[in-house]
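Structure, all two chains, one model.
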Amino acid sequence: MSAAFSRPRAGGGGFGQLLRAEWIKFKSVRGWVAAMAAAALVAVLLGVLSASGDHASCSSGPVEVACPPPVVGPGGEAVDDKFYFVHRPLAGDGGITVRLTSMTGQIRKPDVTPGQRNVVAGVVPWAKAGVMIKESVEQGSAYAAVMMTGEHGVRMQHNFTHDVAGRPGGVSRESPRWLRLTRSGDILTGYESADGTTWTQIGTATLAGLPQTVQIGMFATSPGDLTVTRGDVGGSVAAVRFTEATGEFDQVDLQGDASGAWRDDDIGVTVAPDGSEHHPGRAGQSGGVFSVTGVGDIAPTIEGPTPERPLSSALTGLILVIVVAVMFITAEYRHGLIRTTLLAGPRRGRTLAAKALVLGVVTFAVALPATAITFTVGGRILRDNGNAVLPVSLLTQVRVVVGMAALFALAGVLALALGALLRRSVAAVVTAIALIVVPHVIATTSVLPDSAAQWLLRLTPAAGFAVRQSIPQYAHVLGHYAPIAGFYPLSPWAGLAVPAGYIALILGLAVLRLRRRDA
Amino acid sequence: MREHLHAEWTKLRTLAGVGWLLLAMVVLTVAVSVAASAVVSCAPQGCGHDPAKISLFGVQVSQAVVAVLAVLVITDEYGTGMIRLTLTAMPHRTGVLAAKAIIVAGLTLITGSVAVLASALAARGVLLGNGFAAGTLNLISGPMVRAAVGSVLYLALIAMFSLGIATAVRDSATAIGVVLGLLYLFPALILMIADDGWQRLLWRLSPMNAGLAVQATTDLAGLPLSPWAGLSVLAAWATAALLGGGLLLRMRDA
């Protein structure tokens, strides 16, 4: 006691003392500590509960079997690798040159008369036909390909996630497309030409560790046609319908040691329980003209159970955090404690900063174990229930877990700043919930169209939820990239920066107001 | 009862910010509905959007303002200690709560009618411009009238629900947290559960999902509950909250 009085300090002590004072205030209110613990508990329990209710199995005829694990590409991501491949082994360096003279196909549209298949002629935007060099005929093995697409012109793609654009436009007998792909060691180079004499390089791909003998040839594939409808109880239902694409190649010219015979392989074709192939591809050859028809896609998978799914429970915990955070400041006004606080720490901005820092750190410390447990245990349960959870890298997993804990902390500090600015608990709680929780709920569950939902998740602090998206959006894969399907309009860290920006603004206003006005 | 009503009306009239809250309720309903209508469009062969739901979309946001008003009516008295004076002057506690409920419900019904009518009219023009058929937007046809009247009743029931919870909880921040949590978290929870049976059960229990079924005019067969049955779910929540709040008010010290 005497020691404390014997060393009085000007200005009410350092920042450390302010922090300590705020920490003591926080921990001495049993209700706040309990509510924080409850926030973490509720988030974990709801997350684990929702995961345990989430069962999946795949039917194999009359019996239900566990779904096969997703095919994984060289980069570790889940991939679709399903196409028709007319190929030969190529030993060492070499290449292939072809002339693509047409690309046609069919698309199944939603039935107009029930029970009657409604199939129209056409190719979907990312239907692919072209030349490929692939490590082996194993699904998910390394590859590079130069191809013509339905609506995106010539492309060079490799290892599922890489895509380089060539010349746009279409293909016809009058204006055929010449495609060339060469291998030199680990380096594969793609070229295109309009006449077969002047060639333009599209790009190169380095496939490290490519074996001496690879498969070289022509392929075709066509992803399903995507239609999105709204579900009865909210959410959306994405349906994918059968499509196929056919490429016609002539002037096929192989360079290097590719002396074997042509082989046809329907890579990854779906086999029905009775052993028949479902929507098989096909190929034909007459007089040097090859016709290859394929169904499927060669691209990263974007649909499926994501590992962050159990973390949806975070919203519930967020409301509790918001209420505690607001009361942490408004209770001072209600009980008149603020006058004592400001007497003890007359530099008002610093006092408020200390309060915000303490609350942010406490929230983060409580939220981090909660998000980590929800993510790992929930993910484990999802897998045990037969869900083929999409694999993501360890770095992404850490980002999702830490990022969600950071979002909790940011939401808490934002609510505290609102409490300091408005000084009334109801107004602050409502504003905080309206800024953070409501936009996310409305954007992901309501009748709002996707574009409006995306704007909501760009402009409001709810943009921070972007940090939990683990499967990225790919420009070269057509998908239902909407908040309702778990895709956010901002990148993870840019999303988290939005609530941080709001905090800077509102905390600044609160400090101004605290300085100018009597408490 | 007349004195009770008079007393509560005087208190509410002089509560700071009530006028602003009512104004915010109307403005938010209209503005959000018009904004939602502006971003949807409909092809000539039809679209999956429900014109009634979109032209009354603002209710989903302005219900929060209604909740604030209803919560403040009671928690403000606890915050200032006024409640002790109120209960001394009017010892019949259920009567006090009933009077508060009547005043708040009346105010919400009047303001809600203005808000819903204005937003239906304003959104109608926008939706017509976006390709919606005029037939689906007829403001005097059965389903549309049901959606509009139902939305006004929905707002009044939200007020009763909030008042009941606030009476039970007594603290303003906690009360508004509980109310908004129950309203907005159910829709998110429903999407978290993958099982279809559970989804529909939760939907039937959710005050917001079931209650807003009264706004649906298309695809009624796909809904887990009929519009009026949905609204009665919210009515059950409101009754339970008011009864619980009233019981606690009688049993506890103020």
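Chain B touches chain A through 48 residues (CB under 8 Å).
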